[in-house]
Amino acid sequence: MSHNALPISFSTHPDTVGLHRHESGAVSLSPARHRACLEAAWEIEALARLLPDLALRDDDALPLQVRGVARRLGDLAGAVMSGLDDGVVVDRGLMDAVALSGG
Q1: pLDDT over threshold 80, residue 1
Q2: 53 vs 93: CA distance, rounded Å
Q3: In 3D, which of 30, 11, 14, 44 has the Cα closest to residue 95?
Q4: How far, CA to CA in Å, does 78 sit from each of 8, 17, 25, 44?
Q5: How far apart are CA 99 and CA 50, in angstroms?
Q6: More confidently predicted of 8 and 20
Q7: Is pLDDT above 70 for 13?
Q8: What's the predicted TM-score (pTM) here?
């Protein structure tokens, strides 16, 4: 990843559909895409706060639980990255991926 990349500013506009790259380098996100990215980030934070407590448990199911949390963290991180940088991914797909956990 290049550290010389131009900064990108994000703004939401009601008429924006999906992700729109402007010639200036700015990116506009639809309200639905913006919300999906925020929901994913909030859930990533909640799961990250859960992990230290999970590590202290003495439970035979712990490996399965950690594997499930790790998988969900990966899925959510992918949704955020797609939402912020992949114009091909549709808003509904992002919203569905994030809502999978009922969040």
Answers
A1: no
A2: 31
A3: 30
A4: 19, 20, 22, 11
A5: 19
A6: 20
A7: no
A8: 0.77
Tokens 């549709």 found at: 90
Residues 6+ apart with CB under 8 A from 74: none
Measured CA to CA in angstroms, residue 102 lies from 7, 43, 97 at distances of 33, 10, 10
Q: What string of DSSP letters covers the chain?
A: --TTPPP--EEE-TT--SEEE-TTS-EEE-HHHHHHHHHHHHHHHHHHHHHHHHHT---TTHHHHHHHHHHHHHHHHHHHHHHHH-TTS-HHHHHHHHHTTT-
User: Measuring CA to CA, which residue among 41, 36, 43 is closest to residue 90?
Assistant: 36
d(CA 44, CA 40): 6
* Per-residue pLDDT tens over the stretch 31-82: 889 899 999 999 999 999 998 888 888 888 888 989 999 999 999 999 999 9
